[in-house]
Design brief:
Pfam families: 7tm_6. The chain has about 300 residues and is an all-alpha fold. It has nine helices and two strands; from the N terminus they run ααααααααββα. The protein has helices at about 1-25, 30-70, 90-135, 150, 155-200, 200-205, 210-240, 250-265, 280-295; strands at about 270, 275. Strands 1-2 form a two-stranded antiparallel sheet. The relative contact order is 0.11.
């Protein structure tokens, strides 16, 4: 019952995040280069998603699944209860078919989770980059006569940027709510798996290489994407301060001040509301795992 309610809340939260992204994406881009960059972002995200699917296919379909099916004769399988003996035909073929369907379904769930995570994090970091470019385009000096038309419409452009920045911050907040617990569990599981890999005998560890590759890549991607959001938000904050606000009117300066106050709040995704998801966390964890393995084998 608890799991069902939890999953419903997460699906509701994911739909809310996608709605925020759609609203943000539907708002007009005020800087001409931003439209082209947005197309490049979607192309980049599409490439990342396809690479993620390819890695999962190679790791789980070509490596893990054949090895798992080859070991059906060595131990009992829950999916094949009632088909004994599974070493004889046609029970053996039926058991392998059931196991393939089960493992394929699990793979689809995992890869969908990972690709959704990559898309949400990558898109959010990219929106900070687009906002950064647009706020930079507001830095127009009085002597720049060719852009006086831009100065006259700076209020409308600022309203647009402020609204999209607010939507982006709400997106980050909702992503934190969705992935808070699951990332904490995943990061802890990945760390434990890598620790066990380095303390087990080599001949045993080699059997778990597909699992190690998945856990390592997932942990790195979590930290890398979290770091991208934090870095993009910090760069946007610096550009807000240096956007030439001293040349704006009082009303526009107040809007800049409001946006600056919002952007000064650290944008950090935490695992289990405790561990920040960033490259520093990845480096410290890898160092700790290495020290643990070295101390255990010494």
């Amino acid at each position: 019952m608890f799991v069902e309610v939890y999953e419903r809340l997460k699906r509701k939260g994911l739909r809310k995040v996608l709605k925020l992204i759609k609203n943000n994406n539907d708002m007009p881009m005020q800087f001409e280069r931003s439209t082209g960059k947005r197309k490049g972002i979607f192309k980049y995200l599409k490439t990342i998603v396809l690479i993620c699917y390819a890695l999962h296919f190679f790791n789980e379909i070509l490596i893990y699944l054949p090895k798992r099916l080859a070991e059906t004769d060595e131990f009992s399988i829950v999916s094949c209860v009632g088909l004994e003996p599974i070493s004889e035909s046609p029970n053996k073929e039926i058991c392998k078919a059931l196991l393939t369907i089960q493992l394929f379904g699990a793979m689809v769930v995992v890869v969908s989770y990972d690709t959704t995570f990559l898309f949400l994090f990558g898109y959010t970091a990219s929106m900070f980059s687009i906002l950064r470019e647009e706020i930079m385009s507001l830095d127009v000096r009085d002597e720049d006569t060719e852009r006086q038309e831009v100065v006259e419409t700076v209020e409308n452009r600022l309203k647009n940027i402020v609204n999209r920045h607010s939507l982006t911050l709400h997106t980050v907040e909702n992503i934190q709510n969705i992935y808070n617990f699951s990332i904490g569990v995943s990061v802890g599981e990945d760390a434990i798996t890598m620790c066990l890999f380095f303390v087990m005998p080599l001949n045993v560890s080699l059997n778990f290489i597909p699992l190690l590759i998945h856990d390592f890549l997932a942990f790195f991607l979590y930290c890398y994407q979290g770091q991208k959001i934090t870095t993009a938000a910090e760069r946007f904050e610096m550009e807000v301060y240096s956007c030439g606000w001293e040349n704006f009117g009082v009303k526009e300066q107040k809007m800049i001040l409001t946006m600056l106050r919002q952007s000064q709040k650290p944008v950090i995704i935490n695992a289990a509301s405790v561990v920040p998801i960033c490259i520093y966390t990845f480096a410290c964890t890898m160092q700790s795992i290495y020290k643990f393995g070295a101390a255990f084998k010494s």
